[in-house]
Every structure is written in C-alpha cells, then in structure tokens.
Amino acid sequence: MPLRVAFIGLGVMGYPMAGHLARAGHAVTVFNRTRSKAERWVAENGGAAAETPAAAARDADIVLACVGRDSDVDAVTRGESGAFAAMKPGAVFVDHTTASAAIARELAQAANARGVGFVDAPVSGGEQGAVNGKLTIMCGGGDADYAKAAPVMQAYARHCRRMGEAGAGQLTKMVNQICIAGIVQGLSEGLSFARAAGLDPQAVVDVISKGAAQSWQMENRHATMLQGHFDHGFAVEWMRKDLAICLDESRRSGASLALAALVDQFYGEVERMGGKRWDTSSLFARTEALRAGRG
Q: Domain segments of the chain: what residues?
C-alpha cells in the first residue's frame, strides 16, 4: 500500500533510493542539507521538499535516512529540528547509513522511548545497486518494526533480511566491509602479479573468473583497475571510515582483524597518493606503484 514516506539525505545512494520510493507510489517528502538538490529531486520525481528533518518526518509512516557518519545520523534524529521529535507514535525510522552498532542501539532506545520504531539498515551494492534498485539490506531491530519497514524497502532491494535486534544490521555490514577489503587487496595483488609474470591480465581474469576465484569485485572492477581508472564507485575515504568502525568494534569484541587493519593502512597510502576520492579498487594503483619502484 502507498504510504507517507520521508527520505533524509540525497547523496549518491539516497537520491536514487528515494526515487524508487516515488515510483513505487509512495507520497515522498525529502530533506537534504543542500536545498537545491532536494528541489531538483522533486522536479524529477514529484513529492515535496522539507526545510528540516523534522518537517520531512511529520505525519510520515516511515522515515528513511542515508547520511554519512554517526554524528550525521544523530543530528538528523535527535539534533535541533531532528526527525524523532516530530514523528508520530507507531512510525518507524530506518537508517541506511553505514554507522556503528553503538549509535544504532542508542537511537533505537531513544526512538522507542518516544513510541517510535527504529531499524538500522545499512546497504551493500554501491551506486549501481541504488540506481538499479538492487541493494542488499541488512537490518537490525524489533520484528514488528522490521515488518512495517520491509515492504517499503523492497522498492530498491534485491535482498532484505532482519539479522537480529538493534545494531545487528550494522554488525553485518561490518562483516561485509571486512570481506571486501580482503578481496580487493587480493585482486590487486593477483592482477599485478599477472603483469609482472608477463601474462595477459585480461586473459587471466577470463579464465579464473569461471572458477573459485570469482567475485563481484573481479567481475565489476578488474577492467577499470587494469585501465587505471578509479574516478567512480565507493570512495577510499568512506571505506576507511567503515574500516575504522570495524576495528573499533573488534577491540570491544576481541575479534582479530589483522588483514582489515593492514588493508586500512594500505588505503592510507592510497590517500597520500592523492586517492582520497578514488574508488576502493585503487588499491591496485598502490600495488602497481610498488612494483614499478622495485623495477
């Protein structure tokens, strides 16, 4: 059924996600810190633009957000003109930001105290997944809150699943980022090794991608890596933000993240190469620079 929906944060991910909600028939009100982007979204998709998160959230059945960091989520929920104070009882706030499990649990408690539901729902699939409406969504929160929010999220989901109580979605996203870090580093080293050995890297990928080495990163990033093109996709600075969250959580849980910590250091080297906004596949640029230096 069409619902009254608010979407807060029209960045690379949020802009197309909110568009899918409008096309699904929901009445969508958007908020973005840069007002002109919200007005452009309305011109393209209909709906309305609000001046504050609170104004967007007022009377909404489901309020969704996709912002940058823990501090941003806190600002749009509990800050001045934040959404929580304006949300009606029984409404649900869905946070698609990749943030810490700690802030998810804290905000869930604050929302529940106001009679409002909360679901932490970070996504995987990147800009391409958001545009195509094929995101994987990992959720934490109560059964009832998830049941209200899940049908709305289906507008841009390939797969959506509740992983447990508040914070479980963020913890699952941490696993996702840990795995990606290792896969991209392995792919970078493999492609660089192929070149050093005098092989045709594209021919190598054509063969090994049909076997156990296949991955999303290999399928979608090997060509641009070999071309040295990194001006697309998920930025290094955001991956480092995510890995910092993972490493902080590991210190609390006692999990060993030796590889993730090492890859984070490598991304620091990429940033010093000028790659702060490069795609995460730019680990290959670092590996190739090291190979050239040894040559």
A: 4-164, 172-294
pLDDT band at residue 295 under the 50/70/90 scheme? low
Report the CATH superfamily, name and number, of domain 172-294.
Answer: N-(1-d-carboxylethyl)-l-norvaline Dehydrogenase; domain 2 (1.10.1040.10)
Question: Does 173 participate in catalysis according to the annotation?
Answer: yes
pLDDT in tens, 41-70: 999 999 999 999 999 999 999 999 999 999
Non-local (6+) Cβ contacts of 139 within 8 A are 119, 120, 121, 146, 149, 150, 160, 161, 162, 163, 168, 169
With beta carbons less than 8 A apart as the criterion, state whether 112 and 101 touch: no
Measured CA to CA, the distance from residue 212 to residue 203 in angstroms comes to 16
pTM score over 0.85: yes
Give the mean model confidence (pLDDT) for residues 103-121: 98
Pull the structure tokens for residue 220: 């979608």
Residues 76 and 67: beta-carbon distance below 8 Å: yes
Domain formed by 4-164, architecture: 3-Layer(aba) Sandwich (3.40)
User: Looking up tokens 């909110």, which residue turns up?
Assistant: 18
Average pLDDT over residues 72-84: 97
Q: CA 1, CA 240: separation in Å to the nearest integer?
A: 39
The active-site residue out of 37, 134, 173, 276 is 173
Distance CA 215, CA 223 (A): 13
The pLDDT score that the predictor gives to residue 88 is 97
